[in-house]
Amino acid sequence: MGFADKMKNKADELTGAAKERIGDATDNERMRGEGAAQQTDARARQAGEHVKDAGRDVRDAFTK
Known about the structure:
- The chain has helices spanning 3-26, 29-63.
- By secondary structure, the protein is mostly helical.
């Protein structure tokens, strides 16, 4: 996983958390839901990237 991908996923996760908190503070269900969805999406993308990294590590272990 590239550094830029990690930073984008983390930024999306933090933005989602902020939206969720603002939604809580203002009692705005839509913003709260958008924030939760954005966090979930960012975490899922990050998990997918970790799986790809693990696959590369396994491949590299067998090719050495």
